Amino acid sequence: MSGQMDSRSDGRSDGRSDTGSDGRSDGRSDGRSDGRAANRAGDRAGTRTDPSAGSEPGPRADAPADPLRGDCANCFGLCCVALPFAASADFAVDKPAGTPCGNLAADFRCGIHERLRDRGFNGCTVYDCFGAGQKVSQVTFGGRDWRRDPRTARRMFAAFPVVRHLHELLAYLTEVLELEPARPLHGEARRVLDETERLTLLPPEELGTLDLDAHRRLVGELLSRAGELVRAGVPGARGGKKNRRGADLMGARLTGADLRGASLRGAYLIAADLTGADLREADLLGADLRDARLAGADLTGALFLTQPQLNAARGDTRTVLPARLTRPAHWAAAAPARQRARRPAGVTGPTATRRAK
């Protein structure tokens, strides 16, 4: 989900990267097969059980096609319970961490899923857990839910954001394995991916002591090198004009701009007008695209662009997307009217702290 909750602290996503300007916020040949470590979690679901979680697993649907995308049917509503949110343009009410959302039904489904935006919960339509919800529910805790066994609640809610961060890193590493120009890094990327997958399978107590920042920096540095290899093949991409890393471009008028191969890592593009812009092979890792206008923009091959980033932006049927991403359902209904850029709470400018820069 999005909005006042910053994914840097609790796993909620505002469309930015959890790894900051060097690490994830959505870009994935044989990388999907080379990155099978990320897929093994779905195969192992139910084989790793928290010893204290009991022996009666909850009902489980078939494993999803992509274990790095949220699968609510196999999750115990963790994003709706574990994470906090504040009344804002993205959420209608305040909710503290560890408290179930009032819209969460007994079967762990959202009672207003089809009306979230109408009811003031835009942030819920932006968020994606990268498959961490089903991993924690079905693997870490062996299918035992926090309602039937309240003893699991605290540890389950603490494990969820950690695994969410790790799954986001898995998505980036899988993408690296699909980037042909980054082939010299594929061996290293596979090793780091396997290690990241191993970390997601740690028991709750070990997840709680994991040095996540150190691992994020390790992955972020690898992503930086992979991005440079890709952008090196784009004419004019290495010049200073296209290095807008961390730039404050809130509300910027970039209609039809040539940003092919540009580095926009960690850039603030909130409400920027990117209508018709050429963003092919642009590095969008951690770029804040909330309310950015992407109508008619070309995002073919955009690096490290995530679904939550797209969900937070405003596009249309003419927006060209990477094949791995899905056109948000609400784009068709998005109003094209211009709106004044607003700096989100806590953001004071381009020097605002970002993780793993």
From TrEMBL:
Protein name, entry field: Pentapeptide repeat-containing protein
Region (Disordered): 1-64, 331-357
Basic and acidic residues: bias regions: 7-47
Source species of the chain: Streptomyces lavendofoliae
A Pfam family per the record: Pentapeptide
UniProt cross-references to SUPFAM superfamilies, sorted A to Z: Pentapeptide repeat-like (SSF141571)
Domain of life: Bacteria
Gene3D superfamilies for the chain: E3 ubiquitin-protein ligase SopA
